[in-house]
Design brief:
It contains no helices and 13 strands. With 161 residues, the chain is mainly beta. It has a single domain, classed as Jelly Rolls (Sandwich), CATH 2.60.120.10. It is globular.
Length: 161
């Protein structure tokens, strides 16, 4: 795997931006449906408070929603080794994925004949709105994805390849 070069830490040359509110003053919520745009304070949702969303019976994945404000969906999805998600698309949502752990592919195109490979942990991908696809865990460990969806409407629709 390629190694990132060592970088010098960024040191701002000016201090004319507003101070970041300290963590004790952050608005904390256990309500993942709370809209980030409805408040002027940051929202903190501990991982233990993410909402586990229902999926198909015996699904090889678990979706945990951090929040959904109707325009942005954020959560973590885990998939089991050797598994594939059902074919689906995300309607009017563009989906941005950061692979926290594992390896796999995204299959798409007519009959799933095209394939984009996630190289390994740390890869990022964008799945355009409406693209029928499925994720395949090709590794021997659980995959863990941090996902942001930006758009409107329902975020997941079953589909045929």
């Amino acid at each position: 795997m390629p190694q990132w070069p060592e970088l010098e830490p960024h040191r701002p040359t000016t201090t004319n931006f507003p101070p970041f509110p300290d963590a004790m003053n952050m608005q904390k919520t256990t309500d993942p449906a709370l809209s980030a745009s409805a408040t002027t304070a940051p929202i903190h949702v501990p991982v233990a408070d993410f909402t586990v969303l229902p999926g198909p019976p015996n699904a090889p994945f678990v979706r945990r929603q951090a929040f959904d404000d109707g325009h942005v969906w954020m959560g973590v999805v885990t998939t089991e080794p050797g598994s594939a998600s059902p074919w689906h698309h995300h309607g009017e949502y563009d989906t941005y994925v950061y692979l926290l752990a594992g390896e796999g592919t995204v299959e798409f195109g007519e009959g799933g004949t095209e394939r984009k490979t996630f190289i390994a942990d740390g890869s990022v991908a964008k799945v355009p709105k409406g693209l029928v696809h499925r994720e395949v865990n090709t590794g021997s460990v659980q995959n863990k994805f941090l996902i942001f969806r930006v758009g409107e409407g329902e975020p997941v629709f079953p589909a045929e390849p």
